[in-house]
TrEMBL record:
One of its GO terms (molecular function) is alpha-(1->6)-fucosyltransferase activity. Keywords: Membrane, Transmembrane, Transmembrane helix. GO terms for biological process: protein N-linked glycosylation. The chain crosses the membrane at residues 6-25. PANTHER family: ALPHA- 1,6 -FUCOSYLTRANSFERASE (PTHR13132), ALPHA-(1,6)-FUCOSYLTRANSFERASE (PTHR13132:SF29). This is 25585_t:CDS:1.
């Protein structure tokens, strides 16, 4: 009898334990599902995480902070300085040429196990939050004192070691011997490293969706709370269930004989919203000049609001695009550019202008990039006043393959480098994306 009671008690305890375990699993699961639901919501502003990359990034931050703290001690052993990567962004160019180059430098520092520094980004901390101090000023004197060796990997258009990037090993004896590797580029020049067989395993594990710019930019270019708040307020007040981001770039100095009819953006939007009659839509417009912005907003109002269609909201920020940015000499303000770029990045679809790195970079700068198709790209067309510009005999809009930024020098790579380098570069299907995004 007693034995039977013990037996029943045992069975009961097992059942209770099992139910408890089940409860924990299901409650965790519903929590998980809730998170997924939230992050899938088109209005969701918060950005989800890439766990493997998070781990690598957090380890890097710890290593960097420790190394810098160590070097600042009076007792520091300065006879053997850590190997480093120094990125020198060109502050006179726009964000679309500055941010991708910095992301490239950080990628190189991760895969070569070097410390990462940025040289000459004035007041970086006014715009972005920092987890570690990457201002080259803090160490430059230390490295200048020593007999340091250095090598340029990218030097704008004059020199790019693409054979190394595409198929070389950054840890070989020669490369490992340099104290400093310098990167100066206006381009997303590191893109071909995702084709490099030496680093395939690293990418497969750490950034398995190969959205390298997205992973890095979400860490290095987190906007300061005061700027982020402006973005969030704009999103909360204006972004409906489905948002199309438009970037009109009319005033690029080259080439002069091309124009971009604003009607082409309207046509692209019309195609995007087919079948969406029951959805509230926002069209967010960013442009490089006030008149262009007005022209395109008016054109959208005419196309979408004239037949009492109130479910389409057309919005833009108030950055004065006829003023000049004192930092870069580009139109508008520095903060205004960051806000417009971030808002574009948070849209569900984007329609951007060919050869403008602003739109291509925006496309990759948010977690939305990981589940969104590539932006739609409007082609400028030859200026010929006798033509009806809307009647064109060529493609005027196409869909980019990826949300990764543009790598305009990929054409140079394909034309100028050796056969094997080109072959390996082309093992990554995104070579097509990179070679189609710019003149
Ligand atoms: N606020 C704002 N600034 C813009 C816009 N378009 C261009 N700009 C400014 O002009 C610069 C253009 O440089 P970049 O980003 O390289 O784009 P690209 O010149 O078109 O390749 C940007 O960094 C901004 O400072 C826009 O839509 N909004
Ligand atoms: Mg540019």
């Amino acid at each position: 009898m007693q034995q039977r009671a013990v037996y029943i008690l045992c069975i009961l305890s097992v059942l209770i334990l099992f139910s408890l375990a089940l409860l924990t699993i299901t409650s965790n699961e519903s929590y998980h599902i809730k998170i997924l639901e939230n992050t899938n919501s088109v209005r969701e502003y918060a950005e989800v995480k890439n766990l493997e990359f998070d781990i690598v990034y957090n380890e890097y931050v710890k290593k960097h902070n420790q190394a810098v703290a160590e070097l600042s001690k009076p007792s520091a052993n300065l006879s053997e300085l850590p190997k480093i990567v120094v990125v020198r962004p060109d502050m006179s160019t726009g964000l679309g040429n500055r941010l991708p180059g910095i992301a490239c430098g950080f990628l190189y520092s991760l895969i070569t196990d070097r410390l990462f520094f940025i040289s000459g980004y004035r007041n970086f901390e006014d715009y972005y939050e920092k987890d570690f101090d990457h201002n080259w000023n803090i160490l430059v004197k230390l490295y200048a004192r020593k007999n340091t060796t250095s090598r340029n990997i990218h030097d704008y258009s004059s020199y790019n070691d693409f054979p190394l990037v595409v198929r070389g090993n950054f840890s070989n004896e020669e490369m490992a011997s340099y104290d400093i590797l310098y990167f100066q580029t206006w381009d997303y020049a590191c893109a071909p490293i995702t084709s490099n067989p030496h680093y395939k395993k690293w990418f497969d594990k750490i950034i398995p969706n190969y959205r390298v710019f997205t992973a890095i930019s979400l860490k290095l270019f987190r906007l300061q709370p005061n700027i982020n708040k402006q973005v969030k307020t704009f999103v909360d007040n204006n972004f409906n269930d489905y948002v199309i981001g438009i970037h009109l770039r009319e005033k690029k100095s080259q080439p002069h004989d091309m124009v971009i009819p604003v009607e082409h953006y309207t046509e692209a939007v019309k195609a995007l919203i087919i079948g969406m009659s029951s959805i509230n839509i926002t069209i967010f417009v960013a442009a490089d000049n006030n008149n262009g912005r007005k022209k395109i907003v008016d054109s959208f109002h005419e196309a979408f609001n004239s037949h009492s269609n109130n479910s389409i909201k057309i919005v833009h920020t108030e950055d004065d695009m006829d003023s000049q940015n004192p930092i870069s000499k580009n139109p508008g303000s520095e903060v205004g550019a960051l806000i417009d770029m971030k808002l574009l990045s948070l849209c569900d679809d984007m329609v951007i202008t060919y050869a403008s790195t602003f739109g291509f970079t925006a496309a990759g700068w948010s977690q939305k990039a990981s589940r969104r198709r590539g932006p739609f790209v409007i082609m400028p067309i030859k200026k010929n006043l006798n033509d009806d510009l809307r009647v064109v005999d060529k493609v005027w809009v196409w869909g980019a393959m990826s949300t990764e930024p543009c790598m305009y020098m990929s054409k140079k790579l394909i034309n100028n480098e050796d056969e094997e380098t080109v072959r390996v570069f082309k093992t990554n299907p995104l070579w097509m994306h990179y070679s189609q995004c710019h003149w």
